[in-house]
Amino acid sequence: GGYNYYILKDLLGDGIFTVDGDKWREQRKLSSHDFSTRVLRDFSSVVFRKNAAKFAHILTEAVKSNKIVDIQDLFMKASLDSIFRVAFGVELDSMCGSNEEGKKFSDAFDDASALTVRRYVDILWKIKRSLNIGLESKLKENIRTVDVFIHKMIQRKTEEMSKPEADLSLQWKREDILSRFLQITDTDP
Q1: Which residues, at least 6 apart from 31, have a Cβ–Cβ distance to it below 8 Å?
Q2: I need a surface site. Which of 1, 82, 91, 155 has the fewest CB within 10 A?
Q3: Domains of the chain, with CATH numbers?
């Protein structure tokens, strides 16, 4: 509803998690193709298995070296990596931290999510947002980092999709949700 949309839209925009009615139906219909049995079996399950193996390897190495691991953080990163690959066709690799840009995004998104949830209990959040003070100022910074990353990713995907279809090595990248949305909207970001 409108209440949740108003609280969440700064971070999540007009995405399927925030909109209702016709916008929601349109996005659900489009993204539902990605959750068909074939796609789950052929694309998503490969992604989730690969990240589960990476997760297990990280835990195994931590046990061998008697290292303490924040398991909740590792679960979150494994989930984010898998969902990002399926949704956007991008290897975020937040579990290993090899992608510095991805790490900045991941941290900013995590912080922005936590700060956005606080809006449900902070009756002054709208005033703080309009004055750009307190947690709303920090939220704005995090959202800027998220937006820059996402816009770059959309730009890269748009450029990739404009390449000739003869390049069959790109075919698997067409399975992600972002590619489907860009195909439907003629690559309108």
Answers
A1: 16, 177, 180, 181
A2: 1
A3: 2-184 (1.10.630.10)
Residue 63, judged by CB atoms within 10 A of its CB (0-12, 13-18, 19+), counts as exposed
What's the predicted TM-score (pTM) here?
A: 0.80
Q: pLDDT means per 10 residues in the chain (189 residues)?
A: 93 89 84 66 84 94 94 90 85 85 90 96 96 97 96 88 60 65 69
Tokens describing residue 136: 């709303």
SS3 assignment, position 18: coil
What is d(CA 19, CA 151) in angstroms, rounded to the nearest whole number? Answer: 20
Residue 20's SS3 state is coil
User: Could you give the 3-state DSSP secondary structure of residue 173?
Assistant: helix
Helix axes 100-118, 71-88, angle to 10 degrees: 110
